[in-house]
């Protein structure tokens, strides 16, 4: 990666981290919940080296009762979903950035040095490694024939899933300054759809890798380069024939497969939209959570009580929404009105220190150099909510 671009990314990351730190609420001050939801930890295990204070957001993949997860140190592990028991583990000998994706008995894992690795889901045996143009910080996506992955230099690359040979590569122009992040491409019958740091959502021909249409979700506006950031960092999602996507300093929009904008509303975010019960849910960049009607874009409700807590992407779980924060809490909201229904604190038990007459959060004082928050996207499964903490713990949560 060019030195200038690398420096720009470091500046953006530092700036965003500083803004988040300034906005963080005082630890221990939490809004009340109704208490209608009682979260329980079914099981909990350490995967090894967690994301910590780095930007990395590792996401696990789940299929047919098995979890496939990775730690940043380079280990991929398969676990039984119901019990957390380990089935197998392999060391790829390089730091892992983009988490694990599953497709048709294959796993795909991106490494820090710009490599995509294919593993057999049955036992973790390595099938091939392929060099990428740069590093990838999001999961790959795949269809029957190919694997598609976006790297931080603005390229989308298609690889043959049989042997990892490159089929095509598409590069979009990058702005001078961007947030270091990308989303997982959305794969349809004909298209590979992904967002760029230019503020555009681009649809590429799945066979040829050439653009078919693009939609602008954000327009650079402001005096400074930071104010002009319009990255589409989250992954686009699809329901029926409509595609939903959102940009930082931009819009959230519903778009047809032909590239026609059905509706668009204000919705600045770093994350992906979540679809459930006829609504689009979005964690905004000020840590409020907004609900939109899926068909019209009309705003239904907004939850602002968690502002400043460094929220993760919102995840639908039954009739609730789950969202995690940088202190290690997972909050549960009603999908109907956004009301806070319950929460649970996930921090490493061996480091528990009791201070008399202090709040639960204060009793978990952060150790130097440790990050006990939750940044990775959570996964709703048939057994409960799968949560991966920055400290490297994987936990399954059920609701009572």
TrEMBL record:
SMART domains: PQQ. It is found in: Cell outer membrane. InterPro entries: BamB, PQQ_b-propeller_rpt, PQQ_rpt_dom, Quinoprotein_ADH-like_sf, WD40/YVTN_repeat-like_dom_sf. The keyword Repeat does not apply. SUPFAM superfamilies: Quinoprotein alcohol dehydrogenase-like (SSF50998). Residues 73-303 form the Pyrrolo-quinoline quinone repeat domain. Gene3D superfamilies: YVTN repeat-like/Quinoprotein amine dehydrogenase. Residues 1-25 form the signal peptide. Keywords: Cell outer membrane, Lipoprotein, Membrane, Palmitate, Signal. It is a lipid-anchor. PROSITE patterns: PROKAR_LIPOPROTEIN (PS51257). Part of the Bam complex. NCBIfam families: assembly_YfgL (TIGR03300). Belongs to the BamB family. HAMAP family: OM_assembly_BamB (MF_00923). Part of the outer membrane protein assembly complex, which is involved in assembly and insertion of beta-barrel proteins into the outer membrane. This is Outer membrane protein assembly factor BamB. The lineage of its organism: Bacteria, Pseudomonadati, Pseudomonadota, Gammaproteobacteria, Oceanospirillales.
């Amino acid at each position: 990666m060019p030195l200038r671009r690398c420096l720009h990314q470091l500046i953006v990351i530092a700036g965003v981290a500083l803004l988040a730190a300034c906005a963080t609420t005082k630890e221990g001050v939490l809004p009340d919940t109704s208490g209608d939801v009682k979260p329980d930890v079914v099981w909990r295990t350490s995967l090894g080296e967690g994301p910590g204070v780095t930007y990395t957001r590792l996401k696990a993949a789940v299929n047919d009762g098995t979890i496939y997860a990775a730690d940043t140190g380079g280990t991929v592990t398969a676990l039984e979903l119901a019990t957390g028991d380990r089935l197998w583990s392999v060391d790829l000998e390089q730091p892992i950035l983009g988490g694990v994706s599953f497709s048709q008995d294959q796993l795909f894992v991106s490494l820090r040095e710009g490599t995509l690795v294919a593993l057999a889901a049955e036992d973790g045996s390595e099938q091939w490694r392929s060099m990428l143009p740069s590093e990838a910080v999001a999961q790959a996506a795949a269809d029957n024939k190919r694997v598609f992955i976006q790297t931080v230099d603005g390229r989308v690359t298609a690889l043959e899933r049989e042997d990892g040979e490159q089929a095509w590569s598409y590069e979009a122009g990058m702005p001078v300054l961007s947030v270091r992040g990308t989303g997982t491409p959305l794969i349809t019958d004909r298209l590979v759809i992904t967002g760029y740091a230019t503020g555009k959502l681009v649809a590429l021909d799945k066979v040829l890798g050439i653009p078919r249409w693009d939609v602008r979700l954000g327009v650079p506006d402001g005096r400074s380069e930071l104010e002009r950031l319009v990255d589409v960092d989250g992954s686009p999602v699809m329901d029926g024939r409509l595609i939903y996507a959102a940009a930082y300093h931009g819009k959230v929009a519903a778009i047809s497969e032909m590239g026609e904008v059905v509706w668009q509303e204000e919705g600045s975010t770093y994350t992906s939209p979540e679809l459930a019960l006829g609504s689009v849910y979005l964690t905004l960049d000020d840590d409020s959570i907004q609900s939109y009607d899926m068909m019209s874009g009309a705003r239904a409700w907004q939850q602002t009580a968690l502002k400043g807590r460094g929220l993760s992407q919102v995840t639908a779980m039954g009739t609730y929404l789950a969202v995690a924060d940088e202190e290690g809490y997972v909050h549960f909201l009603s999908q109907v009105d956004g009301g806070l229904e319950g929460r649970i604190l996930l921090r490493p038990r061996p480091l528990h220190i009791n201070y008399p007459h202090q709040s639960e959060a204060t009793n978990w004082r952060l150790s130097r150099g440790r990050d006990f928050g939750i940044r990775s996207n959570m996964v709703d499964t048939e057994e409960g909510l799968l949560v991966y903490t920055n400290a490297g713990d994987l936990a399954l949560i059920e609701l009572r």
